[in-house]
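Hi Prof. W.,

I finally got the CRISPR-associated endonuclease Cas1 prediction working! I wasn't sure whether to trim anything, so I left the full sequence exactly as given:
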Amino acid sequence: MKQSFYIYSAGRLERKDNTVHFVTAEGKGRYLPIETISDLYIMGEVDVNSRCLNFLGAANVAVHFFNYYSFYTGSFYPREKQVAGKLLVKQVEHYQEADKRLTLAKAFVQGAMDSMYRNLRYYNSRGKDVSSMMGEIKAMERPLSRAITIQEVMGCEGMARKAYYSAWNTIVDQEINFTKREKRPPTTMINSLISYVNMLIYTKALGEIYHTALNPTISYLHEPGERRFSLCLDITEIFKPLVGDRLIFRLLNKKQITQKSFTEGLNYLHLKPEASRLIAGELEESLKKTIMHKDLGRQVSYQYLMRLECFKLTKHFIGEKNYEPFVIWW
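And this is what came out:
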């Protein structure tokens, strides 16, 4: 079974026969059979040559690079193996035609709002009074339905998320003093955690898009831009609360991540390696968990749910079935 591999040590990544060979700076080696790798996460200072990248590309293995501060810097994205010209035309058409783009943008935000609401509902039923924030999120559904521009849709999403984040100080059993979401750069422990986990989920979505014929650079809620796979941003709006935020709540409430998980003197910008490994490992386990899918009638993993969103988008583009975002039904 294929799996994600994370490399935290400094060293060199090379091809060795039909395996990927990682050699640390101290000279210790590790062989990774190519057929076992779904994707690679480079978290340390690693040298890699074109021969190795060609080998990984031929095996359809993506490589995601993170810097010293655990910030995502980019991906080596293999040549697309599933290409459909007609689908690409339709995907572009749904971006260029304002009404079609607006429909999808609203769907992504509605899916995100449903996910945030259900997170709060879970904790509200367990003694954490966040009912007022739940009401604020629900109240944004009407202006969302009436929105006529992407900017208005983004505004609704921003207001819902503001209400959602205001509940975190109640949900988390640590003093996190979470007052607002900051990204560039994050200046608090909670903001750094959110950024790191969101970037990991972003790369997971990219991996699932790769297994479909969708183009990852054409998006609808987020504006397509140079040097980013913006469709991942759209899709992960739904899954960041369901997977990422739930993971953060669990790690913080179990005291597995605390202020001591960050390097002192760097204003919470740098997760210690052991904390980074813990978060990545726990996320992998969360994504492997399965649910009985009510439409498919079989068990599917949380990670595979992202691929199903891609398939639903494909059906939407070709006119087979209108896209509806994933919503928890239990």
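The chain has two domains: 3-76, 85-317. Does that look reasonable to you?

Thanks,
D.
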